[in-house]
Fold these 2 entries.
Entry 1:
Amino acid sequence: MDASVAPLFRHVEEPTAAAVARPSREDAEAAVRTLIAWAGDDPGREGLIDTPKRVVRAYEELFGGYREDAAAFLERTFSETGGYDDMVLVRDISFHSHCEHHMVPFFGRAHVAYVPIDRVVGLSKIARIVDAFARRLQTQEHLTAQIVSTLDEVLKPRGVAVLIEAEHMCMTMRGVQKAGASTMTTQFTGVFRDDPAEQARFMTLLRQGRG
Ligand SMILES: Nc1nc2c(ncn2[C@@H]2O[C@H](COP(=O)(O)OP(=O)(O)OP(=O)(O)O)[C@@H](O)[C@H]2O)c(=O)[nH]1
Ligand SMILES: [Zn+2]
């Protein structure tokens, strides 16, 4: 199939969401020229002539998550854990995303924990899942929920905990203009939801070693 008209993955864990036909690269570049003119500049001037091509290439990278199947990162698991059955926490996973309301960046760090049953997953795959969902148009809440539900549904662990802290450029560069305001979202399943002590341990480990 011609990649330029391949349907987009909307959200891989939501197969009922409508897939939209992908416009051609030329259409996307023309749209960038329109936005440059709308902003008030001349898309034909020397410094801007190649910008639509660059923007479209950058979009392929920044929104590459639509073409990734986050659940597939968890296909490979390891069972030789020496009986390890406690929390695995990957802290400070940096990410960049774009808010779906203004299409401007929000960025920060995700902290992801799970309590395995028998099998563990490669640590880098947790960071890959964060990126697969972050590289889409998002809200911070949806991003948090998607990371949790993918780990929960595929690994079926004893519990999953995700905390995301982020700064939204739509609140900093424009609109209400509150530089430095940060937003935190959390979602818990299994033991982290049902056992306050496990949830507290997750929060304590997040703070460990910080001033
Ligand atoms: N809940 C949530 N809201 C977000 C997120 N990213 C941006 N927003 C908010 O989305 C809202 C959109 O509000 P609207 O009133 O429709 O748009 P607007 O007129 O541009 O709003 P202002 O940003 O207040 O100027 C704003 O309050 C943003 O702060 C997010 O990840 N989660
Ligand atoms: Zn926004």
Entry 2:
Amino acid sequence: MKKEELFERIKGKVIVSCQAVPGEPLYVEEKSIMYLMARAAKQAGTPAIRTSSIRDVVAIKEETGLPVIGLVKIKYDGFESYITPTMKEVDDLVAAGSDVIALDCTDQKRGDGKSISEFITEVRTKYPEAVLMADISTYEEGIRAWKLGMDIVGTTMSGYTSYSPKLDGPDFELVKKLSSELDIPVIGEGRVHSPEQAVQMLDAGAFAVVVGGAITRPLEIAQRFIKAVEAR
Ligand SMILES: CC(=O)N[C@H](C=O)[C@@H](O)[C@H](O)[C@H](O)COP(=O)(O)O
């Protein structure tokens, strides 16, 4: 799908993130079951799915026919970044037909001696036509990713790097600042737990919103209910 067509499709919408990694209740070793979550999200009207792992990218594309924002979560020795940290994962996602490739564009430590600017430039050079999403945690990281030619910036990592604010809810401020500066889509992502917060993300300037755990992580949802009741 062409970049412009994809942008038109997701503008002002909720993209559902369907992810389960080993250790999570919905991770099944033998086969991907995330395509069932994606089926539900499609029926609800989502224009695209965000997912992790090659097998889930493939299964979800096959099930839904929707464009997919793909990433590979992997923790290499010496790396803090774990979202599509090296060219190997980028190559695999491209080969799997991922419509968008999401990668960590934070200042977190990389174990390969490359700066994040070098890595982004390598990816952009190798795949000039790919649609690349930068998962960032601060304003400065967002600006740098944009300057280096990333196509989309997402606030995915805000709250998950040691130096970004630890908020209970979404980072509306970051969305607001980035969307007023950048001429590429800024996706509001991370801890959007209610429909009201999704609307607030768009009101803050987000081009689209990604909602994950609040829809597709039953453990997280159940914990939130139980915690609230226990605190009563
Ligand atoms: C920090 C990190 O690793 N985020 C991951 C990135 O893809 C996913 O685990 C999140 O579910 C996704 O960002 C959506 O966020 P939330 O599930 O809060 O709606």
